[in-house]
């Protein structure tokens, strides 16, 4: 069940892992939806153009074309502040058709705990 009301269920704070991070403002149960954020999907050309910029560290992989050229997306909302962990407590799912990224609890996340996602094969490149 998604938390509702005026207060956000997440907040950006300083992280002990790296710079800023996303933290649970309320507790979440395993499998619970944290939030859905809109995406701006970038073209293959725009993705290549940001490859060597700071913004590249904050995009989500969307897909690849027949030649293996990637498209990425900028997420609007605090999900972009999620730090990486191989032992992530949250999962994300990019939906190119809906142009959204969904964040959900992989395990129980107590209030005030940092929400961490696994960058998977991009971890070495980004972290």
TrEMBL record:
It comes from Hyphomonas atlantica. GO terms for molecular function: histone H3K37 methyltransferase activity. Transmembrane segments: none annotated. Gene3D superfamilies: SET domain. This is SET domain-containing protein. Residues 8-120 form the SET domain.
